[in-house]
Amino acid sequence: MSVCIAGLGWATPLGSGVPEVWTRLLAGEEAAVAQISDIVSDVSYPAFRVPESALSNLPRHPRLRRASAISRFAAAAGLAALEQARSTIGKIDMQRVALIFAISNGGVIYTKRFYHDIVATGAQSASPLLFPETVFNAPASHLAAIVGSEGASYTLVGDGAVGILAVKMAEDLLASDALDYCLVVGAEEADWLLCDAYHRWRMARPTPPIEPFHSSAKGMILSEGAGAILIGRSGQVKIEQTHAGGNYAGRRQARELVGRVVKELATPDLQLAVASANGTFVDSLEASAFSQFVPDATIYTVKPALGESVGASAVWQIIVAAEALRTQQLPPLLHVGAEVKRDAAKLQSALVSSCGLNQQVAGMRLSI
Amino acid sequence: MSTFTDQNGKTTSSRVAVVAAGLISPLGSGLNDNREALAEAKDCVTEVERFRVDHCRCKTAGQVPEKYLPAVNGRSRDRIHRASRMMIGALDQALAQDRQFKPEVAVIGTTSGGMSFGEDYYRALHRHGDLRPSPAWIANYPPQKPVIEALQKFQLDIASQVIANACASGTNAIGHAFECIRSGRYERVLTGGYDAISELVFVGFDSLQASTPEKCRPFDRQRTGMVLGEGAAILALENLERARARGANVLAEITGYGISTDNHHLTQPNPSGVGPRAAMSQALRSANIEPAAVDYINAHGTATIFNDAAEGKAIAELFGRKVPVSSTKSMMGHSLGAAGAIEAVFCILALQQQLLPPNIHHRSSDEDVDLNIVANAARSAKIDIALSNSFGFGGTNASIVIERYRE
After folding, report:
1. I need a surface site. Which of A18, A307, A346, B264 has the fewest CB within 10 A?
2. What is the pTM of this model?
3. Residues B334, B335, B337, B338: is their CA dihedral positive or negative?
């Protein structure tokens, strides 16, 4: 059984909708960073934020009235993917669509606000309005209510690789004849707390840009937004193979695991590798694996333009790979630190590699 | 019943065996401890000790005593979260039962991972305190971490899918693992769920007035809410034919799974019980059985007014009032992402012992929730088929059917 991409949706710091974001990426644009501050500290951090204008098409649904940013991003991307699919395949029976969400940090803005009240003034101040929005599956619940889906809904949590694990789950679910499609949505929201955490963890840098594949890893800049992929049994772009990868304990094991995933996905005709490289230790692991197992592939990472969106990032990579295959174009690789192969021939097959910062690695291969 | 297509395009429907199970709960560590506690109708809910609850209505929870957790050495103590220790302990027990079990993937449910590390970090930030341990808190806070930690402890080099479907996570994990094997796409899957009590979640349920300052009395006319719990349970699932071929000990079979979404409200079920009813109906169809075939229902039974009313209505409409029903949360609290996995193991123990687990603190039946409650004491009964329910925030509902294994 093979599965394909039937629709794509995007809500990013560079705008919303696949055509708009893709056009801007092809033009070499990168999103602007904003400084985020917080009452607990004088320190501010840069982050890529989704502009409010990118969410202007969201429906006026009661579920979105008090919903967190992550839920609104997810709704925007998910609805866009369904709309794009309907424009080519017509009506979709939402009772035969499973929702699969890929999330890393979840509704961190409301979670922080809720816990801040507990810490600052005591448990009696905790808001019952905020707590439900802190739950990881709140964004999936809101989207299900908006589209009227009463069937299967799963929220997967993990690091940057979780989007590919969600695609793997979609493949597994589509083995059942009870489903026509799976809507995979990767989503994340940026907050000062996350920026601070990644800085203390020495994964983030204090100023832009993200410089991938540099000899010294200078760190990433956090981003937010969502990406959505409607996966079905037919579509222009085919998911040839999904590799659920595994978990690494240290850098040496990470190197071996990234190498194994790339090796097992590599084919002689592979022309493009969409990396998760984000200016951290990940870059050298992927560069090494690509040079060893797909030496002729063109290398690209979208993170200098859109930032590191963690739970959404692998889905964004898949969208980039699918659009590159579909349009036969590739955006310029920004702020690259090393010479990487850039002569895109006819693109028929693309690899997506994802090495998360917190121990998970996965990958997949697409074709057209 | 859905049909499945394997990777070669062939229609398939494999039987799914549980070949090992590990469990750490407030009732005990291991199958024997938990079996005895269920038989004795133990109340394992105690005063919360790990954080301040003086401003909360509820002050109790089902807590896993330190003695049940695997020891960690000095340097690891600050890095390895309680949740990881529960997962390691439960996985150790399961693997000890079946050394040959080599899973292809792990599908585990949780709601909040290593949340208390996040709390430590935020408290330190807020009071401008010592942030030197923060890299360890941050790296070990994510929900996939306890799963990875446990897998690596036993050199299981496999991918992990961590499902966070609120309180249905554990049952969703088992259900998805079951379907992965039934479809023929996998032969062996490690599944289960875990959660450790944290201040944020405890206060959250308290703020919603979902938790009770009194005893947890599921399905009781005078029920006043839930108490939280914690724990971890691991189940080793395998294609039955493969398990038999290698001579594995089969504890039970998973035969059905249902999942539904109730869009009524983010935290409250539709009072009609439509969501639970859809999940249970689907699980019965998946198991290819009629409602009358079910001998025991381990209910979600949180003891909140709304959950028990909706679930009770759905059970009564689908099964009538004959089938014995209990909520074991009355004994150990609601362990959220672990609950479905722990309660699945309780169902296996019920099938093995032919003993219905009790619903303690039951005083009087609710006229609107007219069920055959296994009140206050375990009861002997012929049990061949059990159904376990888990429902969660977000309107997620999951049910699984577990059957006594017969050659």
Report:
1. A346
2. 0.97
3. negative
What is the rounded CA–CA span in Å between residue A54 and residue A65?
17
Measured between alpha carbons, how far is A107 from B232 in angstroms, rounded to an integer?
A: 25
- CA distances A314 to A76, A126, A365, Å, are 18, 34, 13
Chain A residues within 8 A of B203 when measuring between CB atoms: 118, 123, 126
3-state secondary structure of A222: strand
Residue A262 has pLDDT above 70, yes or no: yes
Alpha helices by DSSP H, listed for B253-395, are 274-287, 305-319, 329-332, 339-353
What residues form DSSP beta bridges with A226?
A11, A187
What is the C-alpha separation between B224 and A274, in angstroms, rounded? 54
A141: contact with B, CB 8 A cutoff: yes
Instruction: Measure the CA–CA gap between A164 and A152, rounded to whole angstroms.
Output: 19
Write out the catalytic residue numbers of B. Answer: 167, 300, 334
The CB-side HSE value for B355 (13 A sphere, CA atoms) comes to 16
* pLDDT for the residue B1: 61
> Among A231, A217, A367, A238, which Cα is nearest to A303's?
A217
- Dist. CA A231–CA A25, nearest whole Å: 24
Contact A176 B139 (CB under 8 A): no
Nearest to A137 by CA among B389, B143, B160: B143
d(CA A162, CA A276): 12
Task: Name the nearest CA neighbour of B330 among B298, B353, B355, B354.
Answer: B298
Cβ atoms of A2 and A238 closer than 8 Å:
yes
DSSP string, A112-150: HHHHHHHHHH-GGG--TTTGGGGSTTHHHHHHHHHHT--
Q: Which residues of A touch B105 (CB under 8 A)?
A: 244
Contact B9 A1 (CB under 8 A): yes
Q: pLDDT-derived band of residue A366, with 50, 70 and 90 as boundaries?
A: very high
Q: How many alpha carbons lie under 13 Å from residue A239 in its C-beta half-sphere?
A: 29
Could you give the CA distance from residue A324 to residue A26 in angstroms, rounded to a whole number?
Answer: 10
CA-CA distance, B84 to B153, in Å (whole number)? 10
For chain A, the residue count is 368
Beta-carbon neighbour count of residue A76 at 10 Å?
A: 29
In this prediction the ipTM stands at 0.97
Distance CA A102, CA A104 (A): 7
Q: What is the pLDDT of residue A341?
A: 56
Closest CA to A223 of A115, A111, A105: A105
Q: Are A179 and A152 in contact (CB under 8 A)?
A: yes
Instruction: Decide if B116 contacts B43 (C-beta within 8 A).
Output: no
